[in-house]
Specification:
The protein contains 19 helices and 31 strands. With about 625 residues, it is α+β, with helices and mostly antiparallel strands. It folds into five domains: about 5-170, Rossmann fold, CATH 3.40.50; about 180-265, Translation factors (Elongation Factor Tu (Ef-tu), domain 3, Beta Barrel), CATH 2.40.30.10; about 270-370, Beta Barrel (Elongation Factor Tu (Ef-tu), domain 3); about 375-520, no CATH class; about 525-635, Winged helix-like DNA-binding domain superfamily/Winged helix DNA-binding domain (Arc Repressor Mutant, subunit A, Orthogonal Bundle), CATH 1.10.10. Strands 2-3-1-4-5-6 form a six-stranded mixed beta sheet, sandwiched between helices. A hairpin with a 4-residue loop joins strand 18 and strand 19. The radius of gyration is 35 Å and the shape is elongated.
C-alpha cells in the first residue's frame, strides 16, 4: 500500500478551505445537504488524492465558523499535518487566531499556510502574507511555507501540490509498531456489514481480525476488526498515517460516539485525572470553571485544580486513554477561544489530602521534563513494573539512574522478560528489607513456637510501609469507570517479595518466612511431642487418641507448630501421625490385591477406622491412591 499522509485544514469561516480541498482532490468535502445549501462547512469533511510522488494524501476539512469550534478541534486534534488557510481579500481574522492557537496547543509542528482567493485581491497578497508571518511568530508554524493560490483559476495549485509533496516527504515516519489509539470521528451502519467507525490512524497498525478495546462515552467493551477500508478500498492491513474505516464486530453503531477510542487491549492507562503543565494560553490559576478538554476527537468536561500559574490537576467527567506527553486543548464551552494548551505530565497522580499538598505538587511538577521523569515515578511508588511505565507513555532508558535498584533480570535471576520487570527505588528497597527483617524478629521473639511469618502476612505488612509495597491490583477510587488499576493487574509482587526476603537474610519454607535453620521452640510442649514421636516410631498407625493428646498437653497450637517443624503430620478428624506414616502405609497397601477395600487396608495396617479413613483420604489427595467406587481403591502405579 502506498504511503498515506493526513492533512487537516484550518482557518476562518468563508476563507475557501472546502473550495481549496475540492480543487486539489476533485472531491466535495462537505457531506451534508445543509452544508451545501448554506455554503458553510458545519462538520468534518473528507477527501483524498495522489501526489506526484505516488504518496497518498487525505484531507480532513474542518468548519471555520466560531459556533463549530468543537468540530474543528475534533478534526485538527488527531492530524499530524495542518494546512492553515487565509483569504487574500479578507486577511487574518478572529478564527484565524483561534485556529492558530488550537494548532499550537495540540503541538502540531508540521504544516503549511495557503493564501487563497489571490484572483479576487491580487494587490492584497503581499500584505496578507506579511500579516500571516507576523501572527505566526513564536508558533510551530512560524517557518512554514506560505503559498498563494486561486482555486477558481487554478493559479498556484501545481506549486501547492509540489509543496505538499515536500512537506509529506519531510514528515517523520510514524511508528507502525506502536500501540493503537484510534480516535473515532464517525460511526454508522452499512447494510450487510454492520458497524463502521472512521478515524485518522497516526500510530500503530490495523489488521483484519485484530482484537481491540472500544472505550468511550457510554461503552467499554471488547471488539474485533471485521474488515478495513482506506480511500474507499478494502485492505487487510492499514499502516499510519492514514484515514481508515473499521468494520467492527459485536458492537452497535448507536453505542459509539465521536471521541470514543479504539485501543490496543491492556496497553493504555484509562485515567480519570491527570496532572498537566501549561504550554500556551491563559494562566491556569485564573479560576476558570466548566472547562472542556479536547484531545483527538474527544471533548470531555473537566474540573481544574490549579497548583500554580503553569500546573494543575484535571479531573475528567469520563475516563480516557491518555499518556504522558499528550497535548490537550482547554476551552470554555461558551467561548470561541482556546483558554490554554497543556501537556500531560502524570497519568497516575498521587492523592492530595494534606494542607498545602497542591502547592508542593506544583513545585514537584515544575522540575519534571515534559517527556516524564522515570526516577520520580519509581521513587514515589517504591517499585513499579517496567511495563506499567511503558503504558504511562514513558521511555525507560537503557542506562538507569544509580538510585534505582537492580532491574528485573537480576531480581528474577535473569529469567524474566525485560519488558515485564520491576524497577525499584534503591533507598525504598533497603527500607523494605530492614522492615521485613524486624517483622520476622518481632514475631519470633513474641511467639517462640511460631514457624515464622507467612509470606502473605509479610507482604501485607510491607504494603503498610511508606512508600508501600505495591499490591497486585490496587484500584483507584471510583471503580472501573474511575480509572484503571494504579499498577498493572497482572503485576506479580511475589518476585519482589522473594527478593526482599533474600536480601534480609531470611528464607521461605512451606510459605513461612524465617531465619535460615530456624526451628520452632516447642517449649513445654517438647516433652509431649517427643513422647508421640516415640509411640509412632513403635507403631506408625497407632495414632494417639484425643485424651492422650490432652494428657500430653498438646493442643491445636502446639500440634500446628510441631507440624510446621516437620515433626508430626495432622490428618483429618484430629488424627496425628508421623510425617513418615503415609510412605510406610503405601508400602503395605501396594502388597494388597488391587483394588482393595477400606476394611482390607485397615487389617493390613493393623489400625482402626478412625485412623485408616483420614489416612486413605490423605493418600487420595496426594494422588498415591485412587478411589474406584464407594468401597474400593487402588494404588496408582
Amino acid at each position: 500500500m502506498p504511503e498515506m499522509y493526513v492533512v487537516a485544514t484550518a482557518g476562518h469561516v468563508d476563507h475557501g478551505k472546502s473550495t481549496l480541498v475540492n480543487a486539489l482532490t476533485g472531491m466535495e468535502p462537505d457531506r451534508w445537504a445543509e452544508e451545501k445549501k448554506r455554503g458553510l462547512t458545519i462538520d468534518l469533511g473528507f477527501a483524498w488524492t495522489t501526489l506526484p510522488s505516488g504518496r497518498e494524501l487525505a484531507f480532513v476539512d474542518v468548519p471555520g465558523h466560531e459556533r463549530f469550534l468543537a468540530n474543528m478541534l475534533a478534526g485538527v486534534g488527531p492530524a499530524p499535518i495542518v494546512c492553515l488557510v487565509v483569504a487574500a481579500d479578507k486577511g487574518w481574522q478572529a478564527q484565524s487566531s483561534d485556529h492558530r492557537d488550537a494548532i499550537t496547543a495540540f503541538g502540531i509542528t508540521r504544516g503549511l499556510v495557503v493564501i487563497t482567493r489571490a484572483d479576487i485581491a491580487p494587490d492584497q497578497v503581499s500584505a496578507t502574507e506579511a500579516q500571516v508571518r507576523a501572527e505566526l511568530q513564536g508558533t510551530p508554524l512560524a517557518d512554514a511555507p506560505v503559498l498563494t493560490v486561486s482555486a477558481a483559476s487554478g493559479d498556484g495549485i501545481d506549486a501547492l501540490i509540489a509543496t505538499l509533496d515536500q512537506v509529506t516527504a519531510e514528515a517523520p515516519t510514524p511508528d507502525g509498531e506502536a500501540r493503537l489509539r484510534l480516535w473515532v470521528d464517525r460511526a454508522f451502519t452499512i447494510k450487510g456489514a454492520g458497524t463502521v467507525v472512521t478515524g485518522t490512524l497516526t500510530a500503530g497498525t490495523l489488521r483484519t481480525g485484530d482484537r481491540l478495546r472500544l472505550i468511550g462515552e457510554t461503552t467499554d467493551e471488547a471488539t474485533a476488526v471485521r474488515g478495513l477500508q482506506s480511500r474507499n478500498s478494502a485492505a487487510e492491513v492499514v499502516v499510519p498515517s492514514a484515514r481508515v474505516a473499521v468494520n467492527l464486530r459485536d458492537v452497535a453503531a448507536d453505542d459509539i460516539h465521536r471521541g470514543d477510542a479504539l485501543i490496543t487491549p491492556d496497553a493504555w492507562p484509562i485515567v480519570g485525572s491527570v496532572d498537566v503543565r501549561r504550554t500556551m494560553g491563559e494562566s491556569l490559576d485564573e479560576g476558570i470553571h466548566g472547562l472542556m478538554l479536547h484531545i483527538g476527537t474527544a471533548a470531555v468536561p473537566v474540573h481544574m485544580r490549579p497548583f500554580d500559574a503553569d500546573h494543575a490537576r484535571l479531573t475528567l467527567e469520563r475516563p480516557l486513554p491518555l499518556q504522558v506527553t499528550d497535548r490537550i486543548v482547554l476551552r470554555s464551552p461558551g467561548s470561541r477561544n482556546v483558554f490554554a494548551g497543556v501537556v500531560v505530565l502524570d497519568v497516575d497522580p498521587p492523592e492530595l489530602s494534606r494542607r498545602g499538598a497542591g502547592t508542593r505538587r506544583g513545585r514537584e511538577l515544575a522540575g519534571r521534563p515534559e517527556t516524564g521523569d522515570i526516577l520520580a515515578e519509581v521513587a514515589r511508588r517504591g517499585a513499579v513494573e517496567r511495563a506499567q511505565l511503558l503504558r504511562f507513555g514513558l521511555t525507560v532508558p537503557e542506562a538507569l539512574p544509580a538510585s534505582l535498584a537492580l532491574e528485573v533480570e537480576e531480581l528474577a535471576g535473569g529469567a524474566a522478560d525485560v519488558t515485564r520487570g520491576w524497577l525499584v527505588h534503591r533507598p525504598t528497597l533497603e527500607t523494605w528489607v530492614e522492615r521485613a527483617r524486624k517483622t520476622v524478629e518481632r514475631k519470633l521473639s513474641a511467639e517462640p513456637m511460631a514457624a515464622g511469618v507467612s509470606e502473605k502476612a509479610l507482604a501485607e505488612d510491607l504494603q503498610r510501609s511508606q512508600p508501600p509495597l505495591p499490591a497486585a491490583a490496587q484500584a483507584k477510587a471510583g471503580g472501573s469507570r474511575g480509572g484503571e488499576t494504579r499498577l498493572a493487574e497482572s503485576a506479580d509482587v511475589r518476585m519482589l517479595v522473594s527478593e526482599i526476603i533474600t536480601r534480609a537474610g531470611l528464607e521461605t519454607v512451606k510459605g513461612m518466612v524465617r531465619p535460615p535453620g530456624h526451628s520452632a521452640d516447642l517449649g513445654p510442649a517438647e516433652a509431649g511431642v517427643a513422647e508421640v514421636e516415640r509411640r509412632l516410631a513403635a507403631n506408625p498407625f497407632a495414632a494417639p487418641e484425643a485424651d492422650d493428646l490432652r494428657e500430653l498437653r498438646l493442643g491445636v497450637r502446639e500440634l500446628a507448630v510441631a507440624e510446621s517443624a516437620g515433626r508430626l503430620l495432622r490428618l483429618g478428624d484430629g488424627v496425628v501421625v508421623s510425617p513418615r506414616t503415609p510412605a510406610q502405609a503405601m508400602r503395605l497397601l501396594a502388597g494388597l490385591e488391587q483394588p482393595f477395600t477400606t476394611s482390607a487396608a485397615r487389617q493390613a495396617l493393623g489400625t482402626t477406622r478412625r485412623v485408616v479413613i483420614p489416612l486413605l483420604e490423605y493418600l487420595d489427595g496426594r494422588g498415591w491412591t485412587r478411589r474406584i467406587d464407594n468401597t474400593s481403591r487402588e494404588v496408582v502405579r
